[in-house]
Structure formats: structure tokens, C-alpha cells
Amino acid sequence: MQFEFSDRLNKLPPYLFVEIDRAKRKARAEKRDIIDLGIGDPDEPTPKEVIEFLCKAAHDSKNHHYPLDQGSSIFRDRIARWYKERFQVSLDPEREILPLLGSKEGISHMPMAFINPGDISLIPDPCYPPYKSGTIFAGGAPYLMPLIEENDFLPDLNKLNYPTLKKAKIIYINYPNNPTASICEKGFFEDVAIFAKKYNLIVANDAAYSEIAFDGYRPISFLKVEGGKETGVEFHSLSKTCNMTGWRIGFVCGNEKIIAGIAKVKSNIDSGVFNAIQMAGITALDIADKHLERMNKIYQERRDALVDGLNKLGWIIKKPKATFYVWARLPEKSKSSIEFAGLVLDKADIIITPGIGFGESGEGYVRFALTVSKERIQEAVDRLKKII
Ligand SMILES: *Cc1c(COP(=O)(O)O)cnc(C)c1O
């Protein structure tokens, strides 16, 4: 049989980590003591209150049916209350909030509702990959906006030219940012909203890391700024906020027309989030403050151990104010991020992610995830000392 992949599948950016994946598998098969700073998946368990509520809700047969397309109304009400308290943003739970099977699901489905063949999505580079793949699956083309250190890893909107902007339908932004761990000020959100209004763009702010922040910094909502709700939506997730990556639960909030488009796509593809998980999501929002206070302290200590440790070895890294990543420029003599990550795995049994994997402008950097204990991070620094 001759099966061919579709053009849209063939158009996806190439997967660059084949060599590193092979080396990882080999290292694991050889039972080497690997320190995995590669994956953005919290190592701590989901809070027990959330698990207990899931168990209770799973026993309730009312929760065994297909969920409503628009999600449970009590979960939506709870999200509205959380948004009000956390961001001082008022949302209509009927029309401005939609639960998702994890935010990745909504992020990648959104272009299907708004992109026609030939249209463009403006996408930061480096970035979380689904912005690109969602656009490509919808028949559109990603147009990359470089995030460079000299510009505090913010896209330079003035560099976008008119022919591009005429075809652009969506602009993705992501603060606090993965992979660069950078943040933005309110002024940037305001600029984006003005820009979006001028060129009739949909703003999609990926706020997956809005709750992982340090040193007293509290990220704001894009929907809070003037023109925010008029131009955009914001994606949230309980994955990082409450250590629930495996549960698949998130939500999108904001402009009602955009939400309606995403909801229509979804109602033709999936049938929503298991009701018991939506109920557990309510508990997660109930306990989020207490849980986050503990987690952010843990991440902050790990961040300090890694950044202080690497800086003692001669790196020059500023402490990020949010996310559980550290984005570090490669040491002088290394040729490429893939080569450096390979060396670190070979010689020190440490997994880190090469920046190029997030896009061309990620070259020259590597990403460390703070998802192992402080002791293991210290051990990683000791091992790096021997090889750099
Ligand atoms: C982890 C992550 C998400 C969250 O994905 P879920 O599908 O909600 O688990 C979204 N955006 C970015 C940038 C992330 O790193």
C-alpha cells in the first residue's frame, strides 16, 4: 500500500530532536543517572484536595454523560469569579468563557475558526509549537516575529510590513513566556490591543504561566487593558497552575465572537471535558492561592540554585520573574544549541532543550526546566562545572 501524508502534515516544521531523543533513550537504557531538565511538566503531584474531589465526582452518575458543548455552568461561574478576583476582569460565563481539553487544544483549534487558506498568523519565534501547527492545519501560514534579548524578548510590531499585515488574521502572544521566561509590562499589552484594532487582528494571549511568578511579581491579564476584550482572548490552563498536565483541563476567556468560533469548531471535533474533571477544576481554583504560594516558593528556590550556580561558572543569566524555565545563552565556544545539549547529555547525563527546537531565533540558547528538586539542580550545576 502507498499511503501519503497530507500536504498539511508534510508542512509541519521538521522535528529536530531525533539525535537527542536517541541519545536520551540510550542513556536511560544504560541506566545512567539522568537529571531531566528538559520537560515543562511539574514534578510535584496534583494537590490531594483536587484528587479527592475528582474521586467523589467520578462516583456521581450525573457526571457520566456527554458534557455540555459550552462546558459546565458551575465551572464557568467559578472561572468568572476567579478572573474577577485574580485579574479584576469581569466576564460573562455564558458567552465569554469556554472550558478546553487543556489550553493546547483551544490554541491549536482556534485558527480553524478564523484562518482561510493564504491567511497568516503572526507568531513569536521562539515559541510553543502549537501556534504554528494550528495555523498550518487550518491552511494558513505562520509569520514569525523574532523575540530577541535586546528587545526584552518582546516582538517588534513596527517591523511588520503592510502586505503581511493585510493577510494576517491572528497574533499570538505568550506572557509570561515559554521558552524565554520573559515577562511583559502592561504597556506592551496596550500596544498590542491598539495594533490589533488598527489591522483587524485577533489577539490570542497564551497565559499558561500567569500564576508561576516570583519576587512579588504578579502577571496581569491581556483582557484587563483597554481594547483587550474587544480584540482578543486569553488561554489559561490548570496544567501548570495546579500541577494537572495529565488531566487535560484549561479554558479560554474573552471576546464573545472569538469564543463562539472556537466553540463551533470544538463541537464538531470533541465532546468536551469529562464533567468530573470540570468539578475537580472548581476545587483547583478554590485552593489555587494556597497551592501556588507553596509551589512558587519551591520554583523560586530552584531558580536561585540554578542561576546562581551557573553564574558562578561564568554564565551571565538574569533571574527570570516568572515561569519555571531558565533561558540561557550558550557558553562562548559552543557551536549550536543542539550540539551543546548533546554534549551536556553525553558528558553530564543532563537533559536540556536546545533553543532551536522552539524556532530559529531560539538558536544560541538552551532552556532549563526547573522541574526537579533543588538538590538535583545543585547536582546538575556540579556536573556542569566539570565539563564547561
Ligand atoms: C504548558 C503550556 C501550555 C499548557 O498546555 P495544556 O494543554 O493546558 O496542558 C500552554 N502554553 C504554553 C506556552 C505552555 O508551555
Describe this structure in words.
The chain is of the alpha/beta class and 388 residues long. It is built from 14 helices and 12 strands. The strands form 3 sheets. Strands 2-8-7-6-5-3-4 form a 7-stranded mixed sheet, sandwiched between helices. Bound molecules: pyridoxal-5'-phosphate. The site of pyridoxal-5'-phosphate (PLP) has 14 residues, from helix 5 and helix 10.
How much strand?
Answer: 5-15%
Count of individual domains: 2
Task: Extract low-pLDDT stretches.
Answer: none
Give the CA-based shape.
globular
Number of helices: 14
Strands across the major sheet, in which order? 2-8-7-6-5-3-4
Average pLDDT for all residues: 96
Secondary structure: elements and pairs:
Layout: H1 7-10, H2 18-29, E1 35-36, H3 48-59, H4 73-87, E2 97-100, H5 103-114, E3 120-125, H6 130-137, E4 141-146, H7 162-167, E5 168-173, H8 186-199, E6 202-206, H9 228-231, E7 232-237, H10 238-241, E8 250-254, H11 256-267, H12 275-312, E9 325-329, H13 337-348, E10 350-351, E11 353-354, E12 365-369, H14 374-387
Parallel strand pairs: 1-10, 3-4, 3-5, 5-6, 6-7
Antiparallel strand pairs: 2-8, 7-8, 9-12, 11-12
Helix pairs in contact: 2-13, 3-12, 4-12, 5-6, 5-11, 12-14
The protein binds pyridoxal-5'-phosphate.
The site of pyridoxal-5'-phosphate has 14 residues, from helix 5 and helix 10.
Quick structural overview:
This protein is an alpha/beta fold and 388 residues long. It has 14 helices and twelve strands.
